[in-house]
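Regression check, pyridoxal-5'-phosphate case 411:
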Amino acid sequence: MVALLESFQQALDQREAKLARRRLTILSPGAADFSSNDFLSLSTSSLLKSRYLRKLDACFSSRKAVGLGSGGSRLLDGNSSFTEELEQFIASFHDAPDGLLFNSGFDANVGVFSCIPQPGDAIVHDELIHASVREGMRLSRAKTKLQFKHNSINDLNRVLQRLVKEDPSISEGNRNVFIAVESLYSMDGDVAPLKEIIQTMHKLFAHGNAYLIVDEAHATGVFGPNGAGVVQDLGVQKDVFLRTHTFGKALASQGAIVLCTTLTREYLINYARTLIYTTAMASPTLVAIRVAYELMQQGKTQPFQQNLQSNISYLRACCDAIDGIDRSIVRIDHHDRSPIFSIRTKYPRELARYCQQRGLIVRAIMAPTVPLGKERVRVCLHAGNTRHEIDQLVGAIKKWAEDLKMGSPKL
Ligand SMILES: Cc1ncc(COP(=O)(O)O)c(C=O)c1O
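Current build output:
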């Protein structure tokens, strides 16, 4: 026991020494949020709250009243007509044949990648793919797991061609290739070139044995018609084998749905252990998800999407107009229409602390969350950020960079 606890302490001390120890923090109330994934600011929306409370009340007071907790796994007592109707409703909103709810995006990705690729298959993924996909791949029976350079069609082509050349069972169509990407990347804030990926896939796999899997976690609610995501924005839903949308970010709730065919859904129900061996979501969560999707379907989240885009344009214009800032000290990376900005500096922790001390919540993102040398301060914009807050943030970054240049750094 003592030895075990000592090894815990040693591990933590090692992390501390490398400045890599993780800690839970509690946000100070009233601070400006430039960090959470609450992109549409729906978690503080009175519209969402009032609709949620009304629907919750209706669910619990109706004659067909639902229980508070689900009471078990989906396969035992945790299923309900409310759950199945919700899946149908979300699938139809996303123009997908069917859908299966999971308790989180993490569970969805682990479930999908651990059971869908068959022995002898290959998974080819973007190098920045989320940890949950990596965890699923670790459990997968796929023979080959390869990565390609982030958002690089050339590199994807190279990896796929090598696969085709070296594995006759793949080139002859007897084994499958799964290509795993995110639509909007959480750290770099850029969007995957889905159309080019689909073209590449079709060109190289005439037998139709390549399958695209898109994680829309960060794009849900933010991009596409009424927030339906990037896949629907591009109209390529028929070319995507499976999509994952999560509800814990812009939709102010939690959980996820896997959009797929009815056959794939049935397969997941039988083989995805993260669905089978866990208690299904409780009714308040299902109601929250239903209400958020109803708002999207009715176009009621459009003004939030527009406010977010307007804030993005404003911050972008402010960043472009910052004069006198030494770009070797601070560089701001941003991709068109993305709510995520990366403030690249050699001292991300110090800049984040400086902003936090001024009531501006931003976070330093360090390796291994991002590759070594690409550490940054991540700024995430929201529909509810005010112009004043954005001005304060830009002012703080500018002042910190100026002080650093003048040799009186706030480190
Ligand atoms: C791309 C991506 N996929 C999946 C997840 C996991 O989703 P959840 O938070 O619902 O478990 C995240 C969350 O950070 C994510 O960024």
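Comparison notes: The chain has a mean pLDDT of 95. The chain is about 45% helix and 15% strand. No diff flagged against the previous build.
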